[in-house]
Specification:
alpha/beta, 320 residues, 2 domains, two-stranded parallel ribbon, globular
Length: 320
């Protein structure tokens, strides 16, 4: 039986990865800062996970859990997702998204393990890319602490792979959503509001710039790419996304149409919610991972948003 160690196991991606690996017969270990059983989301298959409560910024604690588990695969998904520039918190954001990944690489290297390491990257590594669709050869020009940290970690992965021979890979992931996404992210904020407005629980939705465009995919599909990358015969990094741009207005159209409403009657634009640093529309060119690993999306954009609204209608209805 293969053993997998997952950081960020209680998040959206971690929960889908638990479902995937459990179906494939893995023994699953999850790294968390929570006490077991406290504040875990209902969708997390907790009974399938052996939890390890550690601080992943501590090199010694990461080394201890790697030594104890001796995993066949490590999936480092934990991050502090804050793509905006936050005054006076830049260094903290950088450290939270850089140091744990290096700790994992060091822990595996020091023990001469054959562990395969997957580390989640981000489209924000490209920053304001000067090419319409970004691929594995697109220059990285990050312009946020989060993007800079992910880019630095990407270079560390390349170094450990080339110099030390570790099987370590980085998935450069574009935006991905699901019914399990936190409402602090725009798509879920919209779908949840559409459901609550339909049920009479809310009357308005306050948003920032609704002209923004992103490459949005289903989180379950993105997680499948992670597993495919660790099963590859040789370690390679891949850009992973749908390859299609959609706008926040598209989400509004689909979500409110699903509940039979016109979003224009409920949405209020608040310019204080506009980001200080915005990005040119980031869009993946996933040709390489499609060709080499056979990966593709299984859930289209419209179906994804409708699934999210349907789930939010059920959740809001049960809560009231």
């Amino acid at each position: 039986m293969k053993k997998a160690l997952i950081t960020g196991v209680s998040g959206q991606d971690g929960s889908y990865l638990v479902d995937l690996l459990n179906a494939k017969g893995y023994e699953i270990h999850g790294v968390t800062n929570l006490q077991r059983g406290d504040h875990y989301p209902n969708y997390l298959a907790r009974e399938k996970i052996k939890f390890h409560k550690i601080d992943i910024q501590s090199a010694s604690q990461v080394a201890d859990v790697v030594e104890n588990v001796k995993p066949d695969e490590i999936y480092h998904l934990a991050s502090d997702v804050e793509p905006r520039v936050i005054e006076h918190k830049e260094l903290s954001i950088f450290n939270l998204n850089f140091i744990p990944g290096v700790n994992i690489l060091d822990a595996v290297l020091a023990r001469s393990l054959k562990t395969k390491i997957y580390i989640a990257g981000s489209s924000l590594m490209f920053g304001n890319a000067n090419i319409a669709k970004q691929d594995e050869l697109t220059p990285m020009r990050p312009n946020t602490p989060y993007g800079i940290a992910k880019t630095a970690l990407h270079h560390y992965i390349s170094m450990y792979r080339e110099v030390y021979g570790l099987f370590c890979v980085c998935g450069i992931l574009y935006n991905h959503e699901s019914p399990r996404r936190s409402p602090r992210f725009l798509p879920r904020k919209i779908t949840q509001a559409a459901a609550k407005i339909k049920l009479g629980l809310e009357t308005t939705l306050e948003l920032g710039d609704i002209e923004i465009q992103r490459d949005w995919s289903y989180a379950g599909d993105i997680v499948h790419s992670m597993w495919l990358m660790t099963q590859n015969s040789s370690p390679s990094d891949y850009v992973v996304g749908s390859g299609e741009l959609r706008s926040a207005k598209d989400i509004l159209d689909i979500a409110f149409s699903y509940v039979g409403l016109d979003w224009r009657n409920f949405v209020v634009i608040n310019k204080n919610l506009f980001r200080k640093v915005e990005y040119k529309s980031p869009c993946a060119n996933p040709a390489l991972i499609r060709q080499e690993l056979g990966w593709n999306v299984s859930v289209g954009f419209e179906e994804l948003i409708q699934k999210m609204v349907k789930n939010d209608l059920l959740e809001a209805g049960h809560a009231n």
